[in-house]
Amino acid sequence: MAELVDDAGYLLSPAGSKLFGKYELGKQLGCGAFAKVYHARNLRTGQSVAIKAVSKQKVFKGGLTAHIEREISIMRQLRHPNIARLHEVLATKTKIYFVMEFAKGGELFAKVAKGRFSEDLSRRYFQQLIAAVGYCHSRGVFHRDLKPENLLLDENWDLKLTDFGLSAVTGQIRPDGLLHTLCGTPAYVAPEILRKKGYDGAKVDIWSCGIILYVLNAGYLPFNDPNLMVMYRKIYKGEFRCPKWTSPELNRFLCRLLDTNPETRITVDEMTNDPWFKQDYKELQFQQVDHDFELKDCANGDKKYLNAFDIISLSSGVDLSGLFNFPGGSVSGERFISADSPERIIERIKEVVKGEGLKVVRQKILGVGLEGRSGDFVGVVEIHRLTEKLVMVDIRRREGGVCVGVAPGREIWKDKVRPQLSGLVYQPEREVGGS
């Protein structure tokens, strides 16, 4: 069914202006080739949210399924005051809906387009940007498309980093220790990307941050030309000049950020000692939650069952084939559905892993942590309630800082552990036969 939009630009569903009976949809905030963003209100809490509606068909035809998969997987892990939060993901046969934190202040780009910022204001937003980027890097996430259009402002005029569709994670790094995918916005791209010999994800993000800081202070780009190749030559050579109102301290700092040599370019850690950056700098204090290995007690929590967001995010490699309704999808061998009680499953898993030299090192009602013979942390087993009768058993381990399916220990799981757990696997025909 086609979307209906009224004269005020409000998206209407057949039932009025509600999505899943949960969100009241408002006016369109933005539009791209594959998605539209709307303001919405949570009908239960009254909270304002932004909802990005992504067309499954356009994404599939455009070959961007991996980008959507990665964006969901990454944003599920990130919880930082300067990163726009992804609340949940909902899905229909034709669309995926990202329900995100609403940034009332709009894009930073719109503000700087009206005129350059003062040096103090530029520093304030740059410090918030680096806080977000440094946090991402500590989680093994590299944004790769940092620009003012991807920086939002909330009601307190604090910065919120968004749009992780082009992001990379440590698992994508090749054996040479570098990333190789060419991506980003031309005016913000680092010179080493142009060399096409691989690049460090953290260092190209720092370069882009330098471009953003220059734009905030100057009101225009440091490298710009109608001819794209001419602009790339300027970037490659690092040819830029700061405007006359730039202080000597900021000038020196920008030169360290826009150093064409990634080996000598300033790092996030080094910035805290820079005289310009550390002025009025206060390190953010917030509770960091390790979402990769958090053992959730769903029995006592306020979320009784998994929603579409959880099911997508828990998929090994974030396999969206089921949601996209296209053939060829498969379920990871490290996950299965069971009709047994969580307690029975936990006890059985403890018996099996003990026989394979693993041991349980911590336990909650619906999850256990596992440790290997040498004392190294192997991973977790989590049980998630799907319905009153069914649960999903998810077995994961850490790899390169990102939670993925058990790969290095695959043979132990496949050949030894899995066969011993086969009796726990849900068989639909049993239920049909007994009805």
TrEMBL record:
Residues 301-325 form the NAF domain. ATP binds at K52. The keyword Phosphoprotein does not apply. The keyword Kinase applies. It catalyses: L-seryl-[protein] + ATP = O-phospho-L-seryl-[protein] + ADP + H(+); L-threonyl-[protein] + ATP = O-phospho-L-threonyl-[protein] + ADP + H(+). Residues 23-277 form the Protein kinase domain. One of its GO terms (molecular function) is protein serine/threonine kinase activity. It is an enzyme of class 2 (transferase). It holds the Pfam family Pkinase. SUPFAM superfamilies: Protein kinase-like (PK-like) (SSF56112). Keywords: ATP-binding, Kinase, Manganese, Nucleotide-binding, Serine/threonine-protein kinase, Transferase. Its EC number is 2.7.11.1. InterPro entries: Kinase-like_dom_sf (IPR011009), NAF/FISL_domain (IPR018451), NAF_dom (IPR004041), Prot_kinase_dom (IPR000719), Protein_kinase_ATP_BS (IPR017441), Ser/Thr_kinase_AS (IPR008271). Its cofactor is Mn(2+). Belongs to the protein kinase superfamily. CAMK Ser/Thr protein kinase family. SNF1 subfamily. This is non-specific serine/threonine protein kinase. It comes from Ilex paraguariensis (yerba mate).
